[in-house]
Amino acid sequence: MVNILHRVGIKSSLGDVYKALATREGLAGWWTTNTQGEGSVGGVMQFRFSAGGAEIGGFTMKVTALEPGKNVRWQVIDGPEDWVGTTVNWELKREGDYTIVLFKHQGWKAETESMHHCSTKWAIFLMSLKSLVETGKGEPNPDDVKIDKWN
Amino acid sequence: MVNILHRVGIKSSLGDVYKALATREGLAGWWTTNTQGEGSVGGVMQFRFSAGGAEIGGFTMKVTALEPGKNVRWQVIDGPEDWVGTTVNWELKREGDYTIVLFKHQGWKAETESMHHCSTKWAIFLMSLKSLVETGKGEPNPDDVKIDKWN
């Protein structure tokens, strides 16, 4: 099993960062505007992405843990084959003026080229999360920063 | 052992991307302006970083492989303790209009918080590399995009 790991510091409160990770409105502000579903524990959320006006796929997550100001966890229940069964873990803590986000996308079966892509793209989206919370404006899909032909 | 993996697509030739990875001038244009040393196989390169006008450390790499248009490899021989002994591997290939960069920073001993930080920061620097090759202007340290208090 291999994991994608990231860390960013956001100049804002634990509560504001948590809100951006635990609510439909927050997630739509930095990951993808096409975010649907029920964000409580046991609920299911659909994240759909588009390019050039056409839907190109997405991920369905079951919310498996929500600890306000501390932790958000998802399990991927539908999406690309290599995503299904993986887990996404968001851990929050304070450090000086920052809320630190420790991100782990765990349980990849192999170091595929797609995994390399997703690792870079998660970093881009974490910077979008940082921007949303610090400035009020993120860069969610379809206006996300593109890194290659896979988007 | 755990690895940091990334992938970007750069709208440019294999030769131009290779040049940005295999020459002192190229590296100084996207990673850190304070890049010194000898870039041939067996040579040693020093990458030093600064913040607020003061040097904050860096990495010394031995160049272990150079295959024009194809591959660049480094071994970390000095720097932060968790970096020493790790290897950095750049693999290039063509795909449509893009030169694809497959990046692997391999051999981390543990999934430390510092490793999470470096994973995100490598993605930022890969976007700086992409920008340098595509537009002529990268964002090397000290003008790199900051992601947290660790820079």
> What percent of residues of chain A are in strands?
35-45%
The biggest sheet of chain A, with number of strands, parallel, antiparallel or mixed sense and barrel status, is: 7 strands, antiparallel
| Tally of DSSP helical segments of chain A | 3
> Which residues of chain A form runs of ≥5 with pLDDT under 50?
none
Helix-strand makeup class of chain A: alpha+beta
Question: Brief overview, please?
Answer:
2 copies of one chain form a homodimer. The first copy, chain A, has 3 helices and 7 strands. Chain A is of the alpha+beta class and about 150 residues long.
Give a verbal description of the structure.
Two copies of one chain form a homodimer. The mean pLDDT of chain A is 96. In chain A, strand 3 (44-51) and strand 4 form a beta hairpin. Helices cover 26% and strands 42% of the residues of chain A. Chain A is built from three helices and seven strands, in the order βααββββββα. Chain A has 151 residues and is of the alpha+beta class. A seven-stranded antiparallel sheet of chain A has the order 1-7-6-5-4-3-2. The two termini of chain A are 25 Å apart. The interface between A and B is medium-sized, with 33 and 33 residues.
